[in-house]
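Hi W.,

Here's what went into the run:
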Amino acid sequence: MSRTAAQWAAPPTLPATHFVDTRLYTDEGLFREEQEKIFRRTWILACHESELAQAYDYRTFRHPAGPSLIVVRGDDGVVRAFYNVCPHRGNVILCDPAGSARAMTCIFHSWTFDSRGNCTGISRRKEGYQDRLGACDVGLCSVRCAIGCGGFVWVNLDDGAPSLSEFIGDALGSVAPHLQEPMEVFHYQRVSVRTNFKLWHDTNSEFYHDYMHYFNRVTGMRQPGYFARKYELFPNGHASVGSMQVQYDSYEGSGARAIGWSGLAPGGWLLVDVFPGMTFNLRTSVLRVDTAIPIGPNELVIELRGLGLKKDTADERAARIRDHNAIWGPFGRNLHEDLLGVQGQGAAMSDETTGAKWVLHGREEGSTIHDEVGMRHYYAEWGKRMGRVASDPFGDRIESS
Amino acid sequence: MSARTLVEDLVYRGCLYLDARDFDGFLGLCDPEFRYTVRTFSPEIRQEMIWLDHDLAGLALLFRNLPRHNSDHALLSRHVTLYTVDAGQGSSRAEAVSGLQVFRTTLDGGSTSLFAVGKLYDTVKVEGDQARLLRRIVKLDTRMLGIGSHIPL
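Here's what came out:
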């Protein structure tokens, strides 16, 4: 039976932990608060160390809290991060997404900086500043930086936040044994989509949407072991999903995966969601890692990386690229479908007068694959950090709150 | 007919078939040895990437599986300008380079946006008055393709 507008707007008859007010995905004020209370204070995956293979290699990174960062491997081999801002007049120092620079030079007035963040040159310093200001007074602003979880470079804007290992805890325990060998990024793609970052992370945090993916239905859902996959929850909002043996040859033309992954059972598939917007997705022959970079409440950039093993032969690498592209490339079967889904949510929710008022996270199936416990766990952490209740963030929609 | 005329007709006809989602029509323009690849260079990881790579059978299967998937149904319109055609005297091969722009028009016809820009590098088999696509490499300048596409460019 269809519902009236009043019924549509009424809270669901589920526990308040089992649904979310959709203003979480559309409200500009909440988004700015998330940047401050979540993104500015948590560890964010900026790149992989293989993108900084040599001394002086750098990557620039648009941090989800807003600022542009430089991640650079120093002359001493240490990877460091800095705000990508010249201390002189506030210009961006490095504009390219990647490169190699012994000296990082601000084009505006030619101030230079080394790979450790020291200022090494102030044009006509003596004439202009005499002895009032020296290079030692104007180094770059450093950002906490750590390498971990398979050689990924993580940054944290909060100098007082717990360490990366404390933040991750045991969440990556299922994939960690498979991330011991050096890896390389072979696929890098940025996707821009009109949706909220949490909706993307939700999609990575629930497998019920396998109904959207024909590929996953025939290779997974219809196969033994699929409904036995279980969620495991970890402190700080992280969650992982257990493996199964994916039957790739059940998709016409796919064939069984020619290669696998170090220590992973044939056809194996492990997934870990890291709060607030990163996912490690180890699917048989490829590790895909997502980083959500929200630009606004309904504007998201996702960085997608595909990784293989550094020791790959040319044939092995080609096989991984093929496997990756079949489902996760820009023309792949599943990525496009996932993006269609979250774009549709973004479009429908952007109109608050007619869009959904609530999103349900109510499935309970003993923490198995179609249980929505992963999302509930995420929003519990979100609420803790935001000091709000996800089902009623403004305290104005549920009478009892 | 000159090689250029034959290649021109082939390239433009191929675009019309793909725009119309007449995949059989497009495959009919291809040689049995046809291979199709989408490539682009990532300045972020400083390497060339392959984003799609199929032989004729693989491409045919991709098209055949399309109805089983959820896809964006917005229209893609290919605007191609054939720049150069190089064919040696008496050669049965011609190399063609074309500029490619792909526009996406929403289903309500309300807006058209630029989806991708790149170039087509085609190798064409020319025999008498017949031309067949032997190799197509799509080199994309655009790397942010929105929600992507299930349909090759």
